[in-house]
Amino acid sequence: MKKLTGLKKIKTAIFISGRGSNLKNLLKFSKTKYSPIIIDLVVSNKKAFGLKYADQYKVKKKIISFKRNKIAEKKILIILNKRNIKFICLAGFMRILSKNFIKKFKGKIVNIHPSYLPKYKGLNTSVRSLWNNEKYSGCSVHYVSEKLDSGKIILQKKVKITKNETEISLDRKILKEEHKLYPKAILKIFN
Ligand code: GAR
User: Could you give the residue numbers annotated as active site?
Assistant: First the structure.
């Protein structure tokens, strides 16, 4: 693995909407000498719990309401350009970015999704997997394209669904794998 100094690291923004466990995990990862990214900004569409991790790591945070998408994205683009941010990780960001926004950051936005894509795009992935008696679920890191949860897959990991699995237990197992997968996917992109 390549060791990178601060100067060479890619300035990154993380977008969140809630709990922020993936954000916390990426912040921790970004502090290691092997990380190709440096986290410069956390964006949230609301006062999310996860914003506390931005404070903990002394990273700038911005809350931008998405009541009006166009205006929100305009504001975000101004901040991203001002801060010279080159890469975006969506980490539980529950808003859909417009074609226009994605075009401006083409190939530079990635997302983590709690299913083994292309199965179970969208919301409530675990409940739907259980309902359909699936044998496995998983998680995927993919590039963000104009179609929801459909961009090129970077890495994914399967998670077995056991006999007495519940939505809670499955979500927990998937999240644990997400925390390993996201840093690995970032390393794969830049190394
Ligand atoms: C994660 O499971 C992530 O995969 C999912 O939201 C959760 C966020 O958890 N993302 C999506 O469903 C995106 N469509 P976190 O806030 O603790 O990182």
Answer: 113
Output the residue whose Cα is nearest ligand 1's atom 6. Answer: 92
pLDDT digits (tens, 9 = 90+) for 139-187: 999 999 999 999 999 999 999 999 999 999 999 999 999 999 999 999 9
Of ligand 1's atoms, which has the minimum distance to the CA of residue 111? 13
Arithmetic mean of pLDDT, 109-132: 98
Which domains does the chain carry? 8-106 (3.40.50.170), 113-191 (3.40.50.170)
The DSSP annotation for 123-180 comes to S-HHHHHHHTT-SEEEEEEEE--SSTT-SPEEEEEEEE--TT--HHHHHHHHHHHHHH
Query: pTM for this one?
Result: 0.97
C-alpha 52 to ligand 1 mean position (Å): 17
Atom of ligand 1 minimally distant from the CA of 18: 16
Q: Measured from the CB, is residue 50 less than 6 Å from ligand 1?
A: yes
Helix (H/G/I), strand (E/B), else coil: 48 = coil
